[in-house]
Amino acid sequence: MEKPPQIAVLGGGIFVRTQYIPKLAEISDLFVLKAIWSRSQESANSTVELARKVFPYVECKWGEEGLEEIINDSSITGVAVVLAGQFQVEMSLRLLKAGKHVLQEKPAASSISEAETALSHYNSICASIPGQPIWAVAENYRFEPSLVECKKLMEEIGDMMSVQVIVEGSMNSSNPYFSSSWRRNFTGGFILDMGVHFIAGLRMLVGCEIVSVSAITSHVDTMLPPPDNISSIFQLENGCSGVFVMVVSARAPKIFWRIVGLKGTLQLERGNKDGSHGYLVSFYGADGQCKTSFYPFSGVTEELKAFIHDISQATLKKGSNHEAETRLSFVEGARDVAVLDAMLESGMRQGALVQVKKF
Question: Which pTM was predicted?
Answer without folding.
Answer: 0.93
